[in-house]
Known about the structure:
Layout (H helix, E strand, L loop, with lengths): L4 H35 L14 H32 L17 E9 L4 H18 L6 E9 L4 H17 L2 H4 L3 E6 L6 H13 L5 E4 L5 E2 L1 H13 L3 E5 L3 E2 L5 H12 L1 H12 L10 E4 H7 L18 H11 L3 E4 L6 E3 L5 H17 L11 H33 L8 H31 L9 H34 L18 H25 L8 H8 L1 H8 L2 H9 L6 H4 L3 H18 L6 H7 L1 H13 L8 H13 L6 H7 L3 H16 L1
Parallel strand pairs: 1-2, 1-4, 2-3, 6-9, 7-10
Antiparallel strand pairs: 4-8, 5-10, 6-8
Amino acid sequence: MTRDTASEAAGTRAARWLIGAATFVLSVLGIAAYVRSVASGGPDRGFDGGELGFWDAASAALFAVLWTWIAFSFCVATFGFCRRIFSASRPTWSRDGSPETSLKTAVLVPVYNESPDDVFARIEAMMRGIARESAQNPGIEFDFFVLSDSTNVDTWLAEEQTWANLRDRLPADVSQVCRVFYRHRNENKGRKAGNIADFCHRWSQPYPFMIVLDADSLMAPSTMFEMTRRMDGDPELGILQVPPAPIGRASLFARLQQFAAQAYGPVFVEGFDAWAGDQGNYWGHNAIIRVEAFCQCCDLPVLPGQAPLGGEILSHDFVEAALMVRRGWKVRLATDLAGSYEECPTTLTDYAQRDQRWCQGNLQHSRLVVSEGFHPVSRLHFASGVMSYVASPLWILFTVTCLAGWAFDQPAASADWFDRFGRFALFGAAMVMLLIPKAYGVTEIWLSGRSAQFGGAIRVALSAVLETVMSVLLSPIMAVLHSRFVVSTLRGRKVHWGAQQRDEHGVTLGQAAGDFGGMTAIGILATAVVAYAAPPLLPWFVPILAGWLLAIPLAMMLGSRGLGVAMQRLGLLIIPEETDSPRLYDDFKVALDQNVSPKQDTAPERALHRLLRDPAFLLTHQQVVSASESAVTLSDEDRHEVLRHYDIGVDEIPAPLQRRMLCDVGLLRQMHVGSLSRLSA
């Protein structure tokens, strides 16, 4: 597989110049207009002898930062829209045929207290798809590795049992083409990044490449084969990231995210790829990585100082990509490949909890923006991640300084409309620049003939209007949440990185009031302040105030599966995978039903209980512990403590001891014999 790298590099340079120049022009024009709007009105507005009052000067400085950030995003989306419309300008890959030698690719699925039924159903669907397509893709082989860091004892044991069941259930034509392995670490060192690094150091030798997935990832076999071919065809390629599309969720909030990602996302991704070029980014999953490059470059540093801004790097993906680029490896985005899927949070609270974890990780990157050795484009990736969260408190500060400037730095009586309201008009212009890329997305769908995949031309437009209205209402809510996350992180509060909530569970009135009652109080207070201090500005603030005032019912509506299903029945917020369901997703649903159905017909039993009474299950566990190289013999004191509690009942053993005793095979055999003796008695 070959690429015209010279012309592609020239195209990347041209894109950077065009986007940079357009951003500069828009920024200068917007900032000049804003300064003009707040500096006019007469000499009575002095600030150290100048024309700007204190509050106006502060708002102008904040506006300069925020406007430039929005201008850059707008220009990236505009370039991406043009590139998708004029597809001949996009870089292409040419296929040279099958690889000369057999290529083995490891598919890694790191898990942490996830649903084993769901995880292994996804793996089964991908394995069956690979087996079907292997004859058309000779010379490429895949092995799956479930890398568990689960700390919940029952989840850990359920993973082992589900893995064993999958191996027994797979027909020979699948198991002979690709295998599935399971490994459990008894020490969660370095979180997900450490889990993958541990695999690379211990078990990666036969595999030149590894595809990294999340617990909720699905990837089409054709995409996996093509990713491997591209890695093999470019020996300088370190990471190839395939943008994942969210699918499979039914709540209104999830459907809004799924539609937005698939309708508008391609425009942004295309623009991102245009200027990033070979210095692209890695999103932590749904990507293929060259193992040699990863081992060579991605030993993550420990940041000096204390957490949360120091210590272990939490958001490892951006850093791993930057480290590879620093050593000369390419990091690319495969914008032309489909069949890459994930799931998204189903409620506003779940989304906020995930964002809080990401916020802390991204704020750590602020220290890397100025670190030595990184490529300028990698620094921009770091800065973009930081701004995605810092922008929210800056917007709130900007709004406050605008109000204060209007109230305390009053324009002269002779000032025209622009002098009085120009700052708010420019604020509105900034919001329009944020919304125009949504129109780009819908227009591109129309022009590319993909309207039917989204329910038709009219319905895709109506869906975009609905999504836009909801995003406007949600923006002030997320601004407050992000501001709280930023302040909390800067004050030194560490965030617990636990397992994500992936189920559809809805939101009750009590939950919504508990999570967003404070937001409603902010809305009431802000409405009163604006109405009292600056009544003419109240109409300008309606979009902001409405989101805060309606936070509680919004949270309930967004979490509703019924409303999401109703939208689907009306043909709104439809995505292509719903108009033509991929076979991969259908296979996943069948496999999930096979995992879940047998358990519905039997009385529930703790996995730990079954382990101690079932010799076959105990043997499987012993094999896993041995293969994982995680066997540990407890001290005599700990063994005595375990057995003392076990005499009362296995559930009486403290949870930390339960986790540790699962690594002591000899102790488990002793307890197993004791369990059989009790049953026979």
